[in-house]
Design a protein that fits this description.
It is built from 11 helices and 20 strands. Strand 6 and strand 7 form a beta hairpin. The protein starts with a helix and ends with a strand. The protein is of the alpha+beta class.
Length: 545
């Protein structure tokens, strides 16, 4: 491989420097120029140190300190002195140095600098011109490679699996195994004070079609999920009696399921994409990044939407077939639209992976318009504002209205089911961010008519722990008028809303391992005043193998 022009120019500079500038400095020293004497000694000392480093490392290590030091100590001479330096011949600019200059080439290797990959980015993407801190760095290719491995190791408990992860990624495969274990206890109030342990294992496999089959824009994603700890007599919801759910990994049954399996194809430089397969609605719709570490379910998809459908919409742990399209309207606006199967799995077999495609199930249509980086705060433009709408193509039983059918029996009337939501996720600075969410659903067929949630998150709350985070949030779920009528008829008490306040601190113990203590205060569980307000304490461990 031919040397780069930068390396040739630096070699040329060192040759001219050693052949002409140093002799001139010796002359000044003979004439009693003390400053030149100091300069020569400084340069000599630098060159000796560089030579020692080269002999010691034997791996092409270089430094930028020698050039900057030489400039700062006054090696550059006046214009009169520079005129005495012989100019190199044009032949020196060729790929190979001339023999005349090669005889005067110093033993010190060329001094170069290499770009540094920004944290969180892989080789080949955006790089920073800022050199690495410290006196020495690796050569450019080695530096990019080491940065990539370091970034990868910082996300996994067992690092690079002795190189196996890199080999898989070179073939287009990205494998992640994540386990979440949580101890949850209702300390006071609610229905009863008990402790329950929950666990969820995710095995996620992504395939890059361009690396695997040279199919640009193609990707495949598969996610298998195994959940345990479910107990019909002992669960967070049974202990607290709330409707929003204090743990987002709570399940009704223990199961091993195929959670997601989808194929995506991008077009027009990734401005247009289509996805088909088992797909989790909350992975793209109704999502705010700042709320992802909260444990309460309503900080994911709002309760007014997650309650809908025969067996719930396409959310954990049971998903439905979906066809999703995404369009980048401009640099800041994206539009997503999807059609999900209106029934996820089979309620009669909750532990099985059932893929339904019956026309009678109907569809759940959902669309979201997203404005990215929409508002600038304190010089930082990192935010997202979204508006979403959804509607089922089928009807559902009305909560309170009834009618007489052809047989003379009293049956509920049928009504449509639709709603909308709005999201705002905004960074205030490099550490702080907040989110604001609101959603509404048809009160005729849904108990929870609306939800409202907001929260604040700070990353790196303590000096020396930049990966820790602390969050405070509040979520409110309100009953609709028909649901309140039904409760009044049955003698149940009712309040305007159930309000849950959550506070967590997430410790990044080491790369790939986090411990998260969490406290939640549930006001009016299930909007039922006779149920005492509850205090729930949790501690969750998350490990990314």
């Amino acid at each position: 491989m031919n040397p780069s022009p930068l390396n040739l120019n630096i070699k040329l500079f060192m040759r001219v420097f050693s052949s002409f500038v140093l002799p001139s400095l010796f002359c000044f020293q003979a004439l009693g120029q003390s400053q030149a004497d100091i300069t020569i000694q400084s340069v000599r000392e630098r060159l000796r140190k560089l030579k020692a480093q080269q002999d010691e490392n034997q791996s092409g290590r270089t430094t930028v300190d020698a050039i900057t030091s030489a400039e700062e100590t006054g090696v550059t001479q006046s214009s009169a002195e520079e005129s005495e330096v012989e100019k190199p011949s044009p032949a020196v600019s060729s790929d190979r140095p001339s023999d005349a200059l090669s005889d005067t080439l110093p033993d010190t290797p060329p001094i170069i600098s290499a770009p540094r990959v920004k944290p969180g980015r892989s080789a080949g993407t955006e790089v920073s011109a800022e050199p690495l801190s410290g006196p020495t760095i690796e050569s450019p290719n080695q530096n990019l490679k080491l940065e990539t491995v370091e970034s990868r190791d910082s996300e996994h408990f067992f690092g690079d699996w002795h190189g196996r992860r890199r080999k898989l990624e070179a073939r287009g495969l990205d494998l992640n195994v994540v386990y979440k274990g949580e101890g949850n206890r209702n300390l006071s109030g609610g229905l009863r004070q008990r402790t329950v342990y929950l666990g969820s294992l995710d095995v996620k496999l992504s395939l890059d079609g361009e690396k695997a089959w040279k199919r640009k824009g193609l990707s495949v994603y598969v996610n298998g999920m195994a959940d345990h700890g479910a107990d019909n007599d002992n669960s967070p919801s049974k202990n607290v009696g709330d409707i929003q759910g204090t743990s987002n990994i709570e399940r009704t049954v223990n199961s091993v399921k195929l959670y997601e399996a989808s194929v995506q194809q991008n077009f027009k430089e990734d401005r247009i994409s289509f996805l088909f397969g088992l797909h989790a609605l909350g992975s793209e719709f109704y999502m705010t990044d700042a709320s992802t570490q909260f444990l309460n379910k309503s900080f994911g998809v709002g309760r007014e939407l997650s309650q809908t459908g025969v067996n719930g919409p396409s959310l954990a742990p049971t998903t439905a077939l979906a066809l999703r399209a995404k369009l980048a309207l401009s640099g800041r606006f994206d539009f997503l639209i999807a059609a999900f199967g209106a029934q996820s799995g089979d309620p009669a077999h909750p532990s099985a992976s059932v893929i339904r495609g019956q026309p009678s199930d109907g569809l759940l249509w959902i669309g979201e318009l997203m404005a990215k980086d929409s508002i600038e705060i304190q010089g930082i433009r990192a935010g997202k504002i979204s508006l979403g709408v959804w509607q089922y193509s089928r009807t559902f039983d009305h909560l309170s209205d009834t009618t007489i059918d052809s047989t003379g029996a009293t049956v509920p009337t049928r009504a449509g089911n639709s709603g909308f939501y709005g999201l705002w996720n905004q960074s205030l600075n490099k550490q702080r961010s907040f989110f604001l969410r609101a959603g509404w659903a048809s009160a005729a067929v849904n108990q929870t008519q609306s939800t409202l949630a907001f929260g604040m998150v700070k990353r790196g709350p303590h000096k020396g722990r930049p990966k820790d985070s602390v969050g405070f949030g509040l979520t409110r779920a309100s009953l609709g008028a028909p649901a309140q009528d039904v409760r009044a008829r049955t003698g149940l008490g009712t309040s305007a809303a159930e309000v849950t306040t959550e506070l967590y601190y997430r410790f990044e113990v080491k790369p790939g391992l986090a411990i998260q203590p969490d406290l939640q205060w549930v006001d009016h569980p299930s909007q039922n005043p006779p149920t005492d307000n509850a205090m729930v304490a949790s501690i969750r461990a998350e490990i990314n193998f």
